[in-house]
Every structure is written in C-alpha cells, then in structure tokens.
Design a protein that fits this description.
The protein is mainly alpha-helical and 398 residues long. It is built from 16 helices and no strands. It is globular and about 50 Å long.
Length: 398
C-alpha cells in the first residue's frame, strides 16, 4: 500500500526546521574558522585550504548522496548527513582544545563528506510543489539558512568567550538534536516523485543527460560564480576586519549575524513579491550587480561605515539570487531527477568553494587584503552576463 502523501506545507515546515537547526550549528563556527586557524599558527593560505578541503569532500560526496536520495529516499540521506555533521563538530571541538590543526582539517573533511542535507531537503520540497509554490518553498529554505546564520554567529561569538571549544561542541549537540527531530518528524517524499509513473533511464544516466542541456549548464555556471563570490567572503572577511579594524571573534560573529539577518528578511519576506513584480532574470542581474558593488566597496573600505555598507550590499545581492537559482535548477530537472540536478547544482557551488578559498587566501597573503574582493567583483560582473543569457534562452524561471 503506498504511503500517504504529506501536505506540501508539512514538508516545507520540516525542511525549514531541519535546515534551520543545521545552519545554526554551522553558523556557530564558520565565521570564526579563520581565527581558529590563526590561533593554531596557520596562515591566510591555511584558511583557504581549510575551506577548500571541506568543499572538495562536499564536491565528491554531494552528487552521490543526492542521486541516492532519488533511489532510496530523501529521509535516509538527511539522517546520515546530520549524523556525520554531529561527529565532525565533536572532532572540531577536540581540535580547538588540543590546538591540533591537522585534526581541525580532518573534522572539516568529515563534515564535507556528509553534507548532502541541503540538496535532499530541496529535493523533498520540489517533490511536493510546482511553479511559483516551488520558488516560494525554496525561498523558505533560504530563509531557514538566513535565520540560522543570524543566530548561529551571534551565539558562536558569545560562546567563544567561555572557551574556544564551546562553539563547536554546541554545534555538535545541536546536530544531535536535529538528528532526533528529523528521525521522528521528517516525512519521506520520494514516493510522490516515483508515483507520477515517470520512466526512463537509470539515475546515473539521467544525471548526465540533464547536465548536457543548455538550461542546466547556465544554471550551473551561475551557481559556480555565486558561490565563488561567497567563498571569498567566508575566507577573507574575518581576516580583513581583523587587519584593518582590529576586530576579534565577537565583532566578526555579529557581522556574519547581520549577513544572515539580511538573508532572512529578503528570502523570507521579500523574494516572492520581487519575483512576481520584477521577474527572475532581472532579479538575478540586479542581485549580481549588487554583490559586485559590495565587493568593490569592501576592497577599498578602511572604516566601519564603509565596511558595513559593503557587507549589506553583498548580503542583499546574494540573498535575492540564491532561491531563484534553486528554483531554476529544480525546473530544469523535471520530476524524475530533482535530487540529481539539485545535487549537480550544489556540486557546481562546491567546485567554486574548492578553487575560490585557495585563491582568496593566496591573494590576501601575497597581494593585499583587498585583493580577494576585487576578484569577487570581477566574478559578479561575469555572472551578470551569464544571467542575461536567460533572456535569449527564454528560460521559464517563474
């Protein structure tokens, strides 16, 4: 007897809760990672390699986990991902206590290798929504990310005053709570996709087929450029404000909390209205332009008002782009390969997070503190050109 279909509202709520708790845990530690590396006598280049190693493991594992979610279900993949994250955060806490840089690198590798959570939750939302409802559902996931990144960095910067191990240990405990909640509350939705009667090739063949379409190629290019810009911020911002303004973990946590707050407001309250009134292609172009302007400003900023203004522009631009890109990837996939295409999109972002952090660390250490953000501005300009291609391709992103 087939499983009863959960309502789309229920799936979206549970996906929101799962991603929210996951991102609170992530937000507890990621703004402080450059400072952790420096406290263990690592350089800016070491910071770049740390972020790149996480992304490399994620790049290799996420497509497989996403395709696995098409075969065995969204729920098992989400549970495995959360369990891996809990273990990684506990290793992170041990690394900070023992000042073992190698253990810190290993913990981030484990976290990257089990980070199929977001793509599986996006696929679950796509299973039960269509059209504008899907865009709004993806925006809710974006809002969960934004809200988690509001609370996480602020909580992390506060806990860091207790001890360096406190933020990662809290993140590990939070991942355990998320695991228990997902086990009891997260419904399975794969049978809804399967029940449509879609036939065709194996998941592996379908994955490569959808990658060969022009529509998906454009989406993946935008994912790459968007995440490349974001990675430069993650690597360079904490180091930049420490070098130019003398900020420590508390101020850095608050700045990343501001970024999360902007993402939450834009994706949770504004993106649906903007999509209807402005159109998705214009939103993409405007968002990339806004990010580019913020990157240019941050490369030159020497005082607090200029830094904050630049950060607001970057956060707002990124916030309007992310849900539109997720919806684009989902629409391009069709009902049979949601997990595979969303996984490919995350992998494209993962590839950017492999290359961009190393580049950012090298530019910061060997050229100038503002050099990574000049590069980010150039990437945003290229992304604007790619986004404009949707006008000529007549891609439906509503």
């Amino acid at each position: 007897m087939p499983n009863p279909a959960p309502s789309s509202a229920r799936v979206i709520v549970f996906a929101f809760v799962t991603i929210f708790l996951d991102l609170v845990g992530f937000g507890l530690v990621f703004p402080l990672m450059p400072l952790y590396v420096k406290s263990m006598h690592g350089s800016a280049e070491s910071v770049g390699w740390l972020f790149s190693l996480f992304a490399g493991a994620q790049f290799l594992a996420t497509p497989w986990m996403a395709s696995l979610s098409d075969r065995v279900g969204r729920r098992p993949v989400i549970l495995v991902s959360l369990a891996g994250n809990a273990a990684a955060m506990i290793l992170f806490a041990l690394a900070t206590e023992t000042h073992a840089l190698a253990l810190l690198f290993f913990s981030r590798t484990v976290a990257g290798a089990t980070s199929g959570n977001l793509a599986a939750c996006q696929a679950a939302v796509a299973d039960v929504t269509q059209g504008e409802a899907r865009t709004n559902g993806m925006a809710r996931i974006g809002a969960a990310i934004g809200l988690g990144l509001v609370l996480g960095p602020v909580m992390g910067s506060t806990l860091a005053q207790i001890a360096p191990w406190a933020p990662p240990l809290a993140a590990g405990l939070l991942a355990c709570v998320d695991l228990v909640l997902a086990f009891f509350l997260m419904p399975e939705t794969r049978h809804l996709r399967a029940s449509t009667g879609a036939k065709g090739t194996s998941p592996s063949l379908g994955f490569w087929q959808v990658l060969s379409t022009r529509k998906v190629s454009l989406v993946l290019a935008l994912y790459f450029l968007n995440f490349a810009c974001l990675s430069l911020i993650q690597v360079g911002l904490a180091l930049l404000v420490q070098a130019r303004l003398g900020w420590g973990d508390r101020e850095t946590g608050h700045v990343f909390g501001l970024i999360g707050l902007i993402s939450f407001v834009v994706q949770g309250l504004l993106i649906g209205r903007l999509t209807r009134r402005v159109g998705s292609v214009r939103i993409l172009v405007t968002g990339m332009a806004t990010m580019g302007l913020g990157m240019a400003g941050l490369s030159l900023a020497m005082h607090v008002p200029a830094v904050i203004t630049s950060i607001v522009l970057i956060a707002a631009g990124n916030a309007v782009c992310n849900p539109v890109l997720s919806s684009l990837a989902s629409e391009a996939a069709g009902p049979e390969r949601q997990g595979a295409v969303l996984g490919a999109a995350q992998s494209s972002g993962g590839l950017a997070r492999i290359v961009s952090p190393v580049l950012g660390g090298i530019l910061f250490a060997r050229v100038a503190p503002g050099a990574p953000f000049v590069t980010g501005c150039a990437m945003a300009i290229v992304a604007m050109v790619v986004a404009l291609r949707f006008t000529y391709e007549r891609v439906d992103v509503a």
